[in-house]
Amino acid sequence: MEPITAVNEKFFIVIRGKSRKGFCRGCIGRVEAETQRGELMGLLYSSSSAGSPKSGGIVRREDTYPLSRHQAQLLLFVTSTSKRLELLCNPQLFSAICELTQDDLVVVKHKKGHLPGLVKNLMQIGRKENKDDLHMLGFEVEFVDSDHNLSSKKPAPLPLFSAAEIVQVVPSYSVPLGLCWKDGKYGSLNRKAVTRINSMPNIGSRLRQAAENHTEQSVIQNQRLSTSHAPLEVGSMVEVVSNSGITVYGVIRWLGILGGKAAEWAGIELDYEVNGCSDGTYGSQRYFTCKGSRALFVPITKCSPDSRFVCLSTEGQTLKPTETPPVPPFDDSEEDAPPVPESEALSLLVGRMKGIQGHINSCYLDATLFSLFSSSVTLDRICQIPADTEQPISCTLRTIVNRLRRQGFVPAESVMNFRKQLGCDTFRTEEKDPEEFITVLFQKVLCMEPLLRLRSKRESSQGAFTFQIFLEKEQMGPMPTVQQLLEASCLSGDLKFETIPSCLIVQMPRFGNKYKMFPHIIPSTELDVTDLLYNSPRECFICGRLAEFECLQCLPDHKMQPGRIKQYCTTCNTQVHTHPLRQDHSPSALPVAADVAVETPVPRHTMQLFAVLCIQTSHYVSFVKYSSDPHAWLFFDSMADRCGDDQSGYNIPEIRACPELGDFLCQSEEDLARSNPSKAPELVHRLLCDSYMCLYHSAATEVSKPNN
Questions:
Q1: What are the USP domain coordinates in residue numbering (predicted)?
Q2: What is the C-alpha separation between 539 and 546, in angstroms, rounded?
């Protein structure tokens, strides 16, 4: 038998690897010994057996994540192994839960939704019948009702919650001084000591010091925040203290003047549901869109920067943010994950610390990967790589995609590993254009043939991965659609698609953040490429019969749908060009197959919009459609906010539901052309102003995703 080394009491959770000798993902164990090969021999704990070890087993050290005894006890009370791993992937929240003290304000999942309450006791669950047993730990929580009263109609027992049921933590020292619950109930509470076992770690000095010096810190913080923090803007993370003292947290989604109000107000999307809040409406007017009971409107003066992410300075020294535990490695031993189903998209993806975490100018790459792989199956089919020929960089990409689709979050470390493998040091540190990255991605990583085959009448076909719009500004109106831009560019450059692309990436006529030809562009939700196919039958623009001529000069004609491509049958071509203003046009003949009858109906070939990349001041974000529902849009920003400074902090990625985009794009072409972008909702306005790449997939080849 292989020699083993005894170890002190250590606990762990299995985070990857297939089941092996008793252990599987999400299981909690205690290290009994370690082999010379680095494998751990341990006891396996089960929540179903009230904390008693079931049996021993062996697991590789690299397949585990170390836990303190307290962490292991908290996670053991979480019966779902997937929920344990999900909580572990939210290090900020899990760290705060591990440090909860009596009367800390928390928000918990409840049958009625998300409810605020006060932590009263830490409860031990299970009997310790022998030395190897491990008590499970849960929290007794006393609810706070909608009027901020303590709900104590039933004196006992208080409801018990696991760590996975806590969705937000507000430390007791952050509740403002002078907090007074109605009827004086807060002051009359019996402050019983939280039931803790001896092995529970002491509260960190950071919490103790904060509690002891609360008054002094509150004054200092208010002074500093009022003079030093950056002006609040849309996207800022803020906190608001209600009249009764409850602190709520959220993100500013709208700023402006409400009807009937004189000063500037803020529309805030809260972290959880609160009775009396809306879904983004105030009165009868909608200002932004979010889940129901999460939109709060208050004067901007009532908002302060979220103190959970504010680092104060003390005597000229900056306090570094608390180090967060590393995100556990991802088990990619299973089959490839399909795109996120529609039924799971909002719950899995929407929120902060969701999507792909940005790091060192990676936003171009983050937004591109999220657009291509989060919800579309198009590239899954066209980039199948045999396992025996797959390169390491392809494996790294596969892990990123699977992690995004299974966990809804990819840490910056995973993406940095991918950037290091792209073959050029500048991919690791510098900002790139998504077009450059897409070319490298498809050619080197996915080893794909060009997505497009373009042909002109005078040249042979050429391959490309993206289609760059080139045209004269005078050919378009002030706010063109992508359909109009694509047709004008193809006609001006005498280009046609040899076949219908399975994926079409259209680059708008702009160059990075320095120049854009049009102030606003409307992404067409459906792209009709029938008239852009080489040697394909086309119908007359006037009568619908088989077209035989095409005219570039007719493109901007204001009397015939300006911006749309024009082709005619022989009769209509003659009639249209007898007009004095069109007599100098030079229509060109179209190739027509001899076996195609003049009256033959021409089938339409369309492509559907599934993502849009946008750029604003050198920062890339994306809009992604996650189902066929016209309102099923998500907004993704890999660097929506930041915790800490440039040296020791980290970026906070965020995904937001954006149904208002569907409301806007569902309008008719005429209504879209008449719309005023400056009055559009914030994210819609951003899309119209900053569109850089529009991604389409073929309606004929796109397969519907399952709903569950």
A1: 354-668
A2: 5
- Residue labelled with tokens 């009769």: 571
What kind and span of H or E run contains 116? Answer: strand 113-125
pLDDT digits (tens, 9 = 90+) for 118-162: 888 888 887 666 766 788 899 999 887 544 445 444 455 788 999
For residue range 637-675, list pLDDT tens digits in order. Answer: 999 888 877 777 888 899 998 888 998 998 988 888 888
| Cβ neighbour number for residue 392 with a 10 Å cutoff | 9
Secondary structure (3-state) at 380? helix
Cα–Cα dist 567/547, whole Å: 6
Strands 303-305 and 105-110: unpaired
The helix/strand/coil state of 165 is helix
Entry field: residues in the chain: 708
Give one DSSP letter per residue of 626-663, joined into a string. -SSSTT-EEEEEEEEEEES-TTT-EEEEEEEE-HHHHH
- Which listed residue (98, 277, 303, 363) is catalytic? 363
Helix axes 412-420 and 392-407, enclosed angle (nearest 10): 160
Annotation says 619 is catalytic: yes
The answer to whether 540 and 567 are in contact (CB under 8 A) is: yes
The strand pairing partners of 125, in sequence order, are 136
- What's the first-to-final CA gap in the chain, in angstroms? 48
SS3 per residue for 413-465: HHHHHHHHCCCCCHHHHCCCCHHHHHHHHHHHHCCCCCCEEEECCCCCCEEEC
* Sign of the C-alpha dihedral computed for residues 43, 46, 47 and 48 taken in this order: negative
State the number of CA atoms in the 13 A half-sphere of 548 facing the CB. 13
Asked whether 253 and 269 are in contact (CB, 8 A), the reply is yes
pLDDT reported for residue 181: 27
Q: How far apart are CA 149 and CA 142, in angstroms?
A: 10
425 pLDDT higher than 50: yes
Residue 604 corresponds to which amino acid?
A: R
Average pLDDT over the chain reads 77
Q: How far is CA 432 from the centre of its chain?
A: 21
The DSSP letter of residue 199 is: T
Q: Which of 303, 619, 643, 658 is catalytic?
A: 619
Tokens at 694, concatenated: 């529009």
Per-residue exposure over 510-522, b if at least 16 CB sit within 10 Å of its own CB, e if not: beeeeebbbebbb
- Could you count the other beta carbons within 10 Å of the beta carbon of residue 9? 9
Is 666 considered catalytic here?
no
* 151: number of Cβ within 10 Å: 15
| Closest to 290 (Cα-Cα) out of 608, 564, 11, 655 | 655
In this prediction, residue 342 has a pLDDT band, given cuts at 50, 70 and 90, of confident
